[in-house]
Write a structure and sequence with these properties.
The protein has helices at residues 2-17, 33-48, and strands at 78-83, 90-97, 101-108, 114-121, 129-134, 140-141, 147-151, 157-163, 174-183. The chain is an alpha+beta fold. The strands form two sheets. A five-stranded mixed beta sheet has the order 1-3-8-5-6, with no helix packed on it. Strands 2-9-4-7 form a four-stranded antiparallel beta sheet, with no helix packed on it.
Length: 184
């Protein structure tokens, strides 16, 4: 019985070793550097040349939209989204805020149980605050002041929205610093 098993394994191994591999084997080819450089220059020159437009085969299209005579709309509120990179449970970001601009900072709090936030402005009388904190399930809380320690209810990406207090005064713009510390 044992000898039969040994002969069977030996036969399978000898047959499988003599089989051709299914993957094709590519043999090395000569590579002409000069010819390759010429080919690259031709391709680059073709990209720089404008494409020719054949006017005989072109169909004329009429604009179905009516032109607007009203003034263009100017958006007064601008929003920027900044992703913070957390290193050793901390992050610090220096940025500039324009008047009426909302800054949204994205923080990944997958393991933290609390977040400590502190916003400082270059001007001590700056009208800026942490307006809202939105968790990964779109539950929001706020408004807050300049500094807060906030418990994390839902793990994932937290959105920290920084803007002006609209009830307090005029729109403010200037340099701000946001400091983040994760707690466990």
């Amino acid at each position: 019985m044992r000898w039969g098993l040994v002969l069977l394994i030996f036969g399978i191994l000898t047959v499988s070793c003599k089989m051709e591999p299914k993957t094709t084997i590519v043999k090395p080819q000569k590579f002409d550097k000069k010819e390759y450089a010429v080919q690259l220059k031709k391709e680059r020159d073709n990209l720089n040349q404008p494409k020719k437009f054949n006017s005989k085969n072109a169909k004329s299209k009429t604009d179905t939209l009516k032109t607007s005579t009203s003034q263009p709309i100017e958006f007064t509120e601008k929003t920027d989204t900044i992703r913070l990179k957390i290193v050793y449970g901390k992050a610090k970001m220096d940025t500039v805020k324009l008047p009426r601009q909302k800054l949204i900072f994205l923080i990944d709090s997958d393991t933290a149980s609390k977040i400590k936030l502190k916003i400082t402005a270059q001007d001590s009388a700056a009208n800026v605050r942490i307006s809202q904190i939105v968790d990964s399930k779109d539950n929001s809380d706020g408004p807050f002041g300049h500094e807060i320690e906030f418990p994390v209810r839902e793990k994932g990406i937290q959105k920290i929205i920084v803007s002006e207090n609209q009830m307090q005064g005029d729109p403010w713009g200037g340099r701000i610093t946001l400091e983040v510390k994760l707690g466990w």
